[in-house]
Automatic annotation (TrEMBL):
It catalyses: L-histidinol phosphate + H2O = L-histidinol + phosphate. GO terms for biological process: inositol metabolic process; L-histidine biosynthetic process; signal transduction. It comes from Actibacterium pelagium. Belongs to the inositol monophosphatase superfamily. InterPro entries: His_9_proposed, Inositol_monoP_metal-BS, Inositol_monophosphatase-like. Pathway: Amino-acid biosynthesis; L-histidine biosynthesis; L-histidine from 5-phospho-alpha-D-ribose 1-diphosphate: step 8/9. Mg(2+) 2 binds at residue 90. This is Histidinol-phosphatase. Its cofactor is Mg(2+). It is an enzyme of class 3 (hydrolase). Its EC number is 3.1.3.15. It comes from the Bacteria.
């Protein structure tokens, strides 16, 4: 594979995130049409999800037409460069439709081995987290700063997040709560923003199940560039989704796997 041009990818990722901000903020805390994608359950999608992904796809068609695209709302487009843009226009649609500013836009670039770039953007707060080639940075209301996951070796001092208290199946719920009982603080409901907090050095663990590739590729790119670790519950690659554990340090990651790998 040809050498990756990281500056060009970063420039494009920021352009996509800028376009996504406009599309998502247009409908946030405004009258909103919500459709359900799931029979027998609730998997919401809004016009903001669709408009945001279309805006990013249109920009990629202009800036990088030969790259592949995998998006939550409009599926897969094959490319010829070996690079695929993985797009989640609104991660946390339930939060978005509820008016809480904890949803985000997820943008990643994958090669054959997984993410080489990740970007998490929270348009309403104006925070952006990006990681690529071993460098992770954020920008927001407090200015710009380097991202660095915190080093903590005691699970008993850790803060752990997940989006839903149910986590996934009853077995996955059991695994999470067994682990969480051994942490100092457990919090819920942050969607992708929890991964940004981990990369920022604020928390120690994020554990989820039932994820899709577009849910986790961008967080992997940001967290790994900030010095953290993201794997599945067995310690293997997580970029295809499923059961995921993100940890700020090797010690916390190993401690979490002692509980999760049994399931």
């Amino acid at each position: 594979m040809d050498q990756i041009d990281y500056p060009a990818l970063i420039q494009t990722a920021n352009a996509l995130a800028d376009a996504a901000r406009k599309a998502t903020l247009r409908h946030f805390r405004a009258e909103l049409t919500v459709d359900n994608k799931l029979d027998g359950g609730f998997d919401p999608v809004t016009q903001a999800d669709r408009e945001c992904e279309v805006a990013m796809r249109d920009l990629l068609a202009e800036l990088r037409p030969d790259d592949g695209i995998l998006g939550e709302e409009f599926g897969n487009k094959e490319g010829t460069t070996g690079l695929t843009w993985v797009l989640d226009p609104i991660d946390g649609t339930r939060a978005y439709m509820s008016g809480t500013p904890t949803w985000g836009v997820l943008i990643a670039v994958n090669n054959a081995f997984g993410p080489v770039l990740g970007l998490i953007d929270q348009p309403y707060i104006g925070e952006r987290f990006i990681g690529a080639n071993g460098v992770a940075q954020m920008s927001g209301p407090h200015g710009s700063a380097q991202l660095k996951a915190r080093r903590r070796d005691k699970l008993s001092e850790a803060t752990i997040f997940t989006t839903f208290p149910e986590v996934g199946s009853p077995e996955e719920q059991k695994a999470f709560h067994e682990l969480a009982r051994n942490c100092r603080l457990t919090r819920y409901g942050m969607d992708c923003y929890a991964y940004a907090l981990l990369a920022s050095g604020q928390i120690d663990l994020v554990v989820e199940a039932g994820l899709q590739s577009y849910d986790i590729c961008a967080p992997i790119g940001v967290i790994e560039a900030a010095g953290g670790i993201v794997t599945n519950w067995k310690g293997g690659p997580a970029h295809d989704g499923g059961r995921v554990v993100a940890a700020a340090s090797p010690e916390i990651h190993a401690a979490a796997l002692e509980y999760l790998s049994k399931y």
